[in-house]
Design goal:
Blueprint lengths: L2 E3 L9 H23 L2 E7 L2 E8 L1 H7 L17 E7 H4 L17 E3 L8 E6 L4 E6 L4 E6 L7 H5 L3 H9 L4 E10 L2 E6 L6 H10 L3 E2 L4 E5 L5 E3 L4 E3 L9 H4 L14 E3 H4 L7 E12 L6 E4 L2 H15 L6 H11 L3 E6 L6 H12 L1
Parallel strand pairs: 1-5, 3-4, 4-8, 10-16, 16-18
Antiparallel strand pairs: 2-3, 5-6, 6-7, 7-8, 9-10, 9-11, 9-12, 12-13, 13-16, 14-15, 17-18
Length: 362
């Protein structure tokens, strides 16, 4: 079942107290898991904020760490602005506490619609009932449980805790976008479009050609007089039928679940650390489109056309709660020159075209 679920067993009175009590139970379960199998700390700087991920379970740590390895380290001298407490039931033997609501077992991603009084928390269950998140908005703290980290799908390895990152970023004046990003030392181009439009192909080609890489599918953006983009995950993904076009990347890809519907993942920071950067000013919005023609072309488009390429997939995947994400994306594309990139079959032509645009704007 995919979609929103309510909490039929939560009473109208005391909803906040019930959810706060359950959050405390989750933290207690995490502490028990740490006692069983130890805890590993991941401390990073993300968009100027201190991120801490405390993990009980080696397999879960292995699933979380590689995509975030590019982030600057945090020495732990400051209290974390965002904290994730994560445990693996299989490795620790600690089960998820029974929730104070009834719900059907989901067969796909489920985002719960909170009842009145429960707005201080966000909850997500998904990945075939193998992952559960609960996030305290006030404490900026989350708890993550997985039944078995060895069964986490490829897309979790590529973009771990994506839903949590979305909830946290909203409170920090950041916007999580379904977009890729590449650039030079002077600035970056946001690559926008639905799945299958060529974002990953374009981003990976540019990285192999020597441009800076900030992601192929998701990134964080910050509006302002000079918009800025942050690399959230250093991963890249390739369709299986594209692997032959990227032999250097195919040899470095991991495929944890070996599912034909899942894309193999390449951790760019592991293999090309000099090309992954944590942040750049944004200079342009580019909307790739696969044409099947030989030649690659680029030409200006209106901000409205760029917004149509960016907004639907971002809103569908991440931001259906209110109108603020759409307004922010509209402001972002209005602040930047926008282009349509018609991708040709001579793929070696694509990076020079993007480099030409970026050079013209600096």
């Amino acid at each position: 079942m995919t979609g929103n679920q309510s909490y039929p067993s939560l009473s109208d009175d005391g909803v906040h107290a019930q959810l706060a009590d359950y959050f405390a139970q989750l933290r207690g379960a995490f502490a028990k898991a740490c006692a069983q199998c130890g805890v590993s700390d991941i401390r990073e700087d993300l968009a100027g904020c201190q991120l801490r991920i405390a993990t009980a379970g080696r397999h879960l740590e292995d699933a979380l760490r590689p995509a975030l390895a590019h982030l600057p380290g945090d020495d732990g001298s400051e209290k974390a602005h965002f904290e994730i407490l994560a445990w693996d039931e299989f490795e620790s033997g600690v089960r998820l506490p029974p929730p104070p609501w009834s719900r059907p077992d989901p067969s796909g991603p489920v985002r719960f619609a909170l009842p009145p009084g429960g707005e201080a928390f966000r909850i997500h269950a998904g990945e075939n009932d193998n992952v559960f998140y609960m996030f305290s908005v006030e404490q900026q703290q989350a708890v993550l449980w997985t039944r078995d980290a060895r069964m986490l799908p490829n897309y979790f390895h590529a973009a771990p805790c994506l839903t949590l990152m979305h909830w946290w970023s909203q409170a920090r004046g950041l916007r999580l976008l379904h977009a890729g990003c590449v650039g030079t030392a002077a600035g970056a181009a946001l690559l926008v479009g639905p799945s299958g439009s060529g974002k990953s192909t374009t981003a990976l080609l540019c990285a192999l050609a020597g441009l800076h890489y900030l992601g192929d599918d998701y990134c964080l953006a910050q509006a302002g007089p000079v918009p800025r983009v942050f690399c959230l995950f250093n991963s890249g993904k390739l369709h299986r039928d594209q692997m032959q076009n990227f032999p250097d990347l195919a040899a470095r890809a991991i495929d944890p679940t070996s599912d034909s519907h899942e894309k193999p993942v390449i951790f760019m920071h592991q293999h090309f650390p000099e090309r992954v950067v944590s942040s750049l000013p944004l200079r342009a919005v580019i909307a790739p489109r696969i044409t099947g023609r030989t030649e690659t072309r680029i030409f200006p488009i209106s901000p409205a056309a760029a917004l149509r390429a960016l907004a639907p997939s971002t809103l569908f995947q991440l931001s259906r709660e209110n109108a603020a994400p759409f307004r922010d994306m509209a402001a972002l594309v209005r602040a930047l020159p926008c282009y349509r990139l018609e991708l040709g079959t001579r793929m070696e032509e694509i990076p020079p075209v993007i480099l030409m645009v970026l050079d013209s704007l600096n």
